[in-house]
Design brief:
The protein has 147 residues and is an all-alpha fold. The protein has one domain: Cytochrome c/b562 (Four Helix Bundle (Hemerythrin (Met), subunit A)). It has helices at 2-49, 54-68, 94-97, 99-119, 124-145. The longest helix is centred in the N-terminal third of the chain and has 48 residues, at 2-49. 21% of the residues are buried.
């Protein structure tokens, strides 16, 4: 009986990833993408609160610009909103109801991140102004499209 229980557990662990499916994968990849964005935003925020370091600022600004130049439309598969997958995502159905508006906000983020890349290494004042625009762009999208 003990061997049967272990075999059942092992089989469930092997089969679990196969049960995920494309929608779950899209949500997981989407969340990983936005976690990468946040992982570069936090150090920039910390630089503004503490000692400024041009090389660190530039590194994270470059990463944000690179990330936001990526086409992420594939991460927003139909049927992956928080209404479709309660508890799995904070993406509001409004994204799919207004995909053009969502794309415009993402384009604004990309533009702000590109400007941040230009300004980040110049000094704390320049970083603050450019970072503020990126933050405002993030907030704008969160207000409209994230629970």
């Amino acid at each position: 009986m003990h061997k049967l229980a272990l075999a059942t557990i092992a089989l469930s662990l092997i089969a679990a990833p196969a049960l995920a499916g494309p929608k779950e994968d899209a949500v997981s990849e989407r969340q990983a993408y936005f976690k990468k964005l946040g992982g570069n935003m936090k150090p920039l925020s910390d630089l503004l609160k503490g000692d400024y370091d041009a090389a660190t600022a530039q590194k994270h600004a470059d990463a944000l610009a690179d990330l936001t130049s990526t086409d992420i439309s594939g991460l927003f598969m139909a049927g992956t909103s928080n209404a479709d997958m309660p508890g799995a995502t904070k993406a509001l159905p409004a994204i799919w109801e207004d995909m053009d508006g969502f794309a415009a906000k993402y384009k604004a983020l990309s533009s702000a991140a590109a400007n941040l890349k230009v300004e980040a290494g110049k000094g704390k004042t320049e970083l603050a102004a450019a970072f503020g625009a990126v933050g405002a762009s993030c907030k704008s999208c969160h207000d409209a499209f994230r629970d």
